[in-house]
Structure formats: C-alpha cells, structure tokens
Write a structure and sequence with these properties.
about 400 residues, mainly alpha, Ammonium transporter fold, two-stranded antiparallel ribbon, 14 helices, about 70% helix, globular
Length: about 400
Amino acid sequence: MNHVDTLFIIVSAALVMLMTPGVGLFYGGLTRSKNVLGTIMQSFTAIGLVSLVWMLWGYSLAFSPSLAGMVGGLEFFGLSGIGIDSRVGTIPEYIFMIFQCMFAVITVALITGGFAERMKFGAFVLFAVLWVTFVYSPLCHWVWGGGWMGAMGALDFAGGAVVHMSSGTAALVACLVIGPRKGFGQRAFFPHNLPLTILGAALLWFGWFGFNAGSALAVDGIAVNAFVVTHAAASMGILGWLLMETLHQGRPTTLGAASGAISGLVAITPAAGFVGPVSALFLGFIAGAVCYGGVLLKAKLGYDDSLDVVGIHGLGGVWGALATGLFASTAVNSGGANGLFFGNPAQLGIQFVSVIATFAFVAVVTYIILKIVDALVGLRVDAEEEEQGLDISQHSETGYQL
C-alpha cells in the first residue's frame, strides 16, 4: 500500500461525495420555490440509498470477475472477499470501492433533473435501486470492470459514458415516459433562486477535481494533468456558452456561466487522462457552445427535460467521448491511445461505437424500469399535488417561511 496514494483517494472520494449535495443545490435553485426541498431531497437521499445498494451488490456486479464481458457476478456480495488488505493498484480496495460508490451516487442524482417537479418520492426510491442494479452497475463493468467496452479499447477516464451519457439518456427517457409538467409550453417556469444554483455549480467544480484527478488512482503525472485540464475545460466552457448566449440573446447570464462551466466539466471527464491542456481549451470551449445548442433544441422538440440534463450531461458526454477520440495523445498517457488528430483515426470509431452502445442499453433498460415502477407504485404525483408542490405534497415541508 502506498500511503500517499491512499490519502489522495480518500480526499478525492470526499470531494466527489460533496458534488451530490452540489447537484441538489444547483437543481434546487432552478426549480420553482414550491419544489426546492423535494428536488434537494432526491439528491441527498441518493447518497444513502445508492451507497446501500453499492455495498451490498452493486460493487460486485461492477467489479467482480466478468461474466462474458457483460456484468460481474456476486462474488463480492456484501463486500465479502475484499477488505483493507486487498489492493487495487497501490490503494486498499475498500477505498477504491467507496470512491466508485460516489460515482454511482452522483449519477442517480443527475438523472433527477430530467423529471424534477413531478415524480413521486417513493417512485424515485424504487427507480434508483433498480437503475443502479440493472443499468449503472453493468455499464460500469463494461467500461472499468473488465467488460467488453474496455476490452474494445474505448477510452473513458472518469465517466463520460458511465456517468454523463447514462444520466442524460435516462433523463430523456424519464421525461418522455412521465410527460411534461402541468402548464409546460403554456407558461414559463423560472428559476426561483439563482444564487443557490451558482453555489451548487461552484461546489460541483470544486468536487470535480477529485472526480477527475482521483480517477488516476495515484499521485502521479496523470493525476496532475487531469487536474489541470479539468480546470481548463470548465473555464473555456463558460466562455463558449456565454459567447453563444450573447450572439443568440444579446446578453450573457449568470445561469449561462454556471451551465457553461458544467458543460466543460462534463466534456472533459472522459478525456481528462488522455488529452493535454491546449486540447482541453478547445474541447471545453466547443462543449459550452454545443451544450447551449442542445438546450435550445429542447424547445424545438417539445420534451420537458426540466433542468437540462439531456442538453448538458447527455450531449456534453457524447461530445467528450468523441473528442477523446480526436484529441487523445500518448504523450499525456502512455497507457492510452492516440486519437484522430495524433494519427489514429480508429480510436474515433471505437468511441463512436461506445456512444451508440451506451445510449441503446441505457434507453431500453431505463424504459423497462420506469414501466415497472409505474405499474407498482405510479411514477407521477397527481395534478393537485403537482400544483401544490412536492415540498408540501411529498414531505410536508416548505423551503421558505416568508
């Protein structure tokens, strides 16, 4: 065991855990005031709920020996067979397990933005358990646990497919299955507390250093590079979004700055261990512009993705995966592969296959899970409860006493 590496991953896991309350604040500020607590509640509850699933069987499905490259078995059920003396690289497997647990937690929290303001809390609980079991854990195994996608050579350093494309796809399916909010398309739904959203974005940016740099699993040059390119892409994501917003609407907004930063962070996630700082500047800037366009597309297509999970995480994750196939360089990571711009066009094709496979798998299984949950407990609050707000109807609380 390397004690420096172990301490680094302990701190990184704590940073990634902080991101989930950050998601709650980011999303909570974007909702109407009558739904702020219900929205934050879903993210905060995900920490406990997904952690339980992960420790009992999720980690085993993701990281125990592979069954035909599709999923792990149950050898590690209840964390049996691992302990403080077992290792992943130079760190104890226990802390690797917790680090990966935080990724599973935030992925579920991200999905909630797609169906914000209209899903029953009980339905969310059941959905989260089933989704981590049958979608997240197998997909994690495909990429990082010895499954077929990693064996194919797909590059996903910290979760472009596993976290962002999967959450964006699941959010899209969920908002289509559940349907739009009452009054969608007839009246505007304005964010009730943008300072809360900015605070959430800042916490996400801060935690993302652990998310990406920690994925190196060691204190080395790859971790240092991941830290630098993460900041570079987030910074340029702001500028790309604000430029497009100014050209389109005539003025930049604080919400645009926050959304642009998240867009850059999403896009650099799969690439952080494979691209250099200059490539990250281009990647982040394009991410801000592309994700702004993706959010505009929502209005044209008419689906009610409440908090733009599809446009930012889904589309940003796709761009990040494909950009990895463009900008990857073995000068950054000798264990990776070169991308198209560094003489290896085949890598872009591999990345494209990983994007299609992720979307198809997540969309189909998420749809099945939602239909099961709807049949068992019902997905959506009734019209009166939705008008009242989830804070009161689901939790008997209010976010503000004015």
